[in-house]
Design a protein that fits this description.
Layout: H1 2-22, H2 24-28, H3 49-56, H4 58-61, H5 76-81, H6 84-93, H7 113-127, H8 149-159, H9 161-164, H10 180-183, H11 188-197, H12 218-230, H13 238-252
Helix pairs in contact: 6-7, 8-12, 11-12
This protein binds heme C (HEC) (2 copies).
One heme C binds near residues 159, 199, 205, 210 and 224.
């Protein structure tokens, strides 16, 4: 018994000593400190959520998912409306025509399928709260029917104009959202998502809070998005797509 333990211990000692001698730097780095030897873990082998999120997402969605240039992902209401498969697909393939890059290697990104799985699963497990919309009868994530533009304009007057102005040109309570430079860089789903979930981190209400006591219906959301989309210039021109490309390559090669 005693002999066996000693053998086991010395085996452990030998096996852990050898790699330590080979990679002295790695073994002597205290926990939590950045390792100077960047070859210790190949980028495709990183499987820690915090590292993956910080390196790939935080620049636009904020540290800890709290929001930045783009929406907060640590928003339980948002995570109750989108499902994991849909999110995984967005992260893998990006959102065409916006600065949301494709991350999966097969689509030109830098991450493996497994890394995207880690990111997606942990966003839900860390930041979601399953019960958050119990009894709220939330609208569907994606539009189910085509919207009615004329009705959407009325909806905008009812629910949005108080903060964004009657034509969406902005007021001190909410920015301009019908100008070309905004609409050219946002997808239709991106607009729908913001109407449904708001941007709580910036004080924008979700679909229940624009008019106190009066939630928007699924149809009203679909219609107001159709109206916003109808205000988008058909060919916004080169400046916007050039800007888009720059943002994409920055996102994919943040070290540059
Ligand atoms: C360069 C900026 C940028 C980076 C980096 C980025 N995103 Fe995004 N992301 C965006 C923008 C902008 C949108 C909104 C696109 C639109 O208009 O639909 C978006 C949209 C999304 C959406 C969909 C939102 C919706 O409407 O349902 C998800 C999910 C998402 N990003 C997750 C991630 C994750 C996870 C990462 C890191 C792996 C990441 N993003 C990195 C800019 C970025
Ligand atoms: C109580 C005020 C308020 C109401 C009502 C409101 N919003 Fe907002 N909205 C905001 C604030 C605050 C923001 C975040 C900061 C900003 O962009 O002004 C915002 C942001 C947005 C954005 C993102 C803008 C950006 O630059 O990223 C969109 C799109 C938007 N709102 C659409 C709507 C629509 C459509 C409605 C009506 C269905 C609506 N909002 C109702 C206050 C409001």
């Amino acid at each position: 018994m005693k002999l066996q333990r000693i053998r086991t211990l010395s085996a452990i000692a030998v096996f852990s000593l050898v790699p330590c001698l080979l990679m002295l730097a790695a073994c002597s780095t205290p926990h939590g400190e950045p390792q100077t030897d960047s070859e210790t873990v190949a980028p495709s082998q990183v499987s820690d959520f915090g590292t993956l999120y910080a390196q790939n997402c935080a620049g636009c969605h904020g540290a800890e998912g709290r929001g930045g240039a783009s929406i907060a992902l640590a928003n339980p209401v948002y995570l109750a409306i989108i499902d994991e498969a849909t999110m995984r697909n967005i992260v893998a393939n990006g959102v065409h025509g916006t600065s949301m890059p494709a991350f999966v290697q097969s689509a030109g990104g830098m991450l493996t399928e497994q890394q995207i799985e880690v990111i997606t699963t942990e966003i839900f497990s860390r930041w979601g709260r399953k019960q958050v919309l119990d009894g709220a009868n939330p609208p569907s994530y994606a539009a189910k029917v085509a919207g009615n533009v004329a009705h959407g304009q009325l909806v905008f007057g009812t629910y949005c104009a108080s903060c964004h102005g009657s034509e969406g040109a902005g007021t001190p309570k909410g920015s301009a959202i019908t100008n070309d430079s905004f609409l050219a860089l946002v997808s239709n789903q991106g607009l729908r998502t913001m109407v449904i979930t708001g941007r709580p981190e910036l004080g924008a209400p979700d679909w229940r809070g624009n008019v106190p006591g009066r939630s928007m219906t699924d149809q009203e959301i679909t219609d107001v998005v159709a109206w916003l989309v109808s205000r988008r210039a058909e060919n916004p021109g080169q400046p916007y797509s050039a800007l888009n490309d720059t943002q994409q390559s920055k996102a994919q090669h943040p070290e540059k």
